[in-house]
Design brief:
about 200 residues, mainly alpha, Tetracycline Repressor, domain 2, 11 helices, globular
C-alpha cells in the first residue's frame, strides 16, 4: 500500500485523515505513527512531510486560515459587508470543524512556521478590512470589528461544542438554522440586511 502514495498526495492524505480524527476525537487523539498505520504506509513516511505531530497540526491550521481568507476576500469583493463576513466565518467553522479547532489553539502549533504566519496574517487582514466597511455606520469601527469577531467566533464555538443546543438558548430562536442565528445575533450590532422584497413590491 505504501507504494500507492507519492510525495504529492501522501501529504494531503495525512491531513485529511488527521482532520477526521480531530473532528471525532480531538487534536490529541493521533500520532504520526497512528496516521501512518491508518493509511497503510511506513511509520516514517508522514515525518518526511511534517516532521512531527505539531507539523501536521500547523499544516492543518495553515490550510484553514488560507481557506478562511479566501472566503472573506470573496465576500469583500462581492460587497457582502461585515455582517456577511461573519456569516462566512461561521459557515467555514461548520464545514471545517477540525481546522477551526486547531487554528485557534496556539499551544498546539509551531508559531515560527512562516506558512502559518502568512496564512494567519492574510485571514486577519481580511478581518481587519472590516474597519473600513464599518467606518460610516459604527461610532468606533475598530471596536466594532472586535465585537463582531467575538460574536461570530463565539457562535461557531458554542455550536461546535454542542453548547448552543444543550443550553436551550438556540431553542429561543425557533427552528432558525445556524447562519440565520448568526445574522440575527450579529445584526444587533451591525444591522440586519434588508429582507428581499415580496412579489407585490417588485
Amino acid at each position: 500500500m505504501a507504494d500507492g502514495y507519492h510525495h504529492g498526495n501522501l501529504r494531503a492524505a495525512v491531513l485529511a485523515r488527521a482532520a477526521e480524527v480531530i473532528e471525532q476525537e480531538g487534536p490529541y487523539a493521533f500520532s504520526l505513527r497512528s496516521l501512518a498505520a491508518d493509511l497503510g504506509v511506513s511509520h516514517t513516511a508522514p515525518r518526511y512531510h511534517f516532521g512531527s505531530r505539531e507539523g501536521v497540526l500547523s499544516a492543518l491550521a495553515t490550510d484553514g486560515f488560507t481557506e478562511l481568507a479566501r472566503r472573506l476576500a470573496a465576500n469583500r469583493e462581492a460587497e457582502g459587508g461585515f455582517l456577511e463576513s461573519g456569516v462566512e466565518y461561521v459557515r467555514f467553522a461548520m464545514e471545517h470543524p477540525a481546522h477551526f479547532q486547531v487554528m485557534f489553539a496556539p499551544s498546539l502549533l509551531d508559531q515560527d512556521d512562516p506558512a502559518l504566519s502568512a496564512a494567519r496574517g492574510a485571514a486577519f487582514g481580511e478581518l481587519r478590512s472590516g474597519v473600513a466597511s464599518l467606518a460610516d455606520g459604527v461610532e468606533d469601527p475598530a471596536a466594532g470589528v472586535v465585537a463582531g469577531w467575538s460574536i461570530v467566533h463565539g457562535i461557531a464555538t458554542l455550536a461546535l461544542t454542542g453548547n448552543l443546543d444543550s443550553s436551550g438558548v438556540r431553542a429561543l430562536l425557533g427552528d432558525a438554522d445556524l447562519l440565520a442565528v448568526t445574522r440575527r445575533s450579529a445584526g444587533l450590532l451591525f444591522g440586519s440586511p434588508e429582507p428581499p422584497p415580496s412579489p407585490a413590491q417588485e
